[in-house]
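Run: sequence + adenosine-5'-triphosphate -> complex structure.
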Amino acid sequence: MSHVIEMNRVSKIFNDKKAVDGISFTIGKGSITAVLGPNGAGKTTMLSMLLGLLTPTEGTVKVFGLAPKDVKVRERCGAMLQEVSVMDRLKVREIIALIRSYYPQPMDMEFLVRATGLAPADLNRYAEKLSGGQKRSLAFALALAGNPQLLFLDEPTVGLDTTARRRFWDTVRELAAGGTTILFTTHYLQEAEEVADRILLFSQGTLVADGSPEDIKARMVKQSLSFLPSGDAAALRGQLLKLAPVIDCYDKDGRIHVVTENTDEALRAIFTGGLAVRNVRIHQGSLDEAFEQLTHNHEEDMKR
Ligand SMILES: Nc1ncnc2c1ncn2[C@@H]1O[C@H](COP(=O)(O)OP(=O)(O)OP(=O)(O)O)[C@@H](O)[C@H]1O
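>> structure
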């Protein structure tokens, strides 16, 4: 299968700083990928190379098997970037019509209006008179105007209210179901977890995790178990701390929690030892915790 996006050992150096450091990944058709990472991790730099706005210092970037600057690639891509600048002295309808006219098979105007939530009345307004949220809806309409097969979205929902945000993600899901490939950056972990089928987690220019939200949560080193004590809780805690796989244990919300690097081994030790526990639960940890842990571990490794 040919990949929609292919990054092979890509680095970008600004002066002496490596903003992106030897990154490789591929992305397949119709997937929704979230790019996450703290400020300065290299997300926008990576996106700019995919859009052909920046040239890699090392490595190769291919989009639809071609260089990102190729006109055949540009015709098939749409982008919504962080900075929204609208053309003055043009009405919303005129701007959308203008952008649609640049493409061989533009997106249906009715779909654009419905999908982006622009009200019919908004179409006759001058773009500079729109609110911040409406300007972002217009930017989304412009990103879709060319009927793209690949859509780049850089922190797309900043400034959108709850309704607009929900409509936005519904449209993204609908497009992906129709075969459009989506790559978006976000700082909202909940969005990544709900919408993306894959997460690329960046830290200091490198890719520290790549997988489904579930995979990434499962990579948490520390998971926890909790249960209700069947007998004396203090005695049970003492017994638990003597088991090799148990790192720590504590009481919370009437349950005893056990911290471990391996829930399977901890459970085995508890049952083999005949400890009096019931109502066992395994806590995977949140994506938030996984994200903190993975980027923190990476930063610590870099200091060594
Ligand atoms: N044009 C540039 N010249 C010099 N350094 C740059 C340039 N663009 C980015 N950088 C540096 O590269 C690093 C990565 O920046 P980038 O904007 O890609 O991060 P990011 O992950 O998108 O951050 P944010 O979440 O804040 O948008 C930062 O240290 C930044 O200062």
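>> summary
Residues 14, 17, 19, 37, 39-45 surround adenosine-5'-triphosphate (CB under 6 Å). The chain is about 35% helix and 30% strand.
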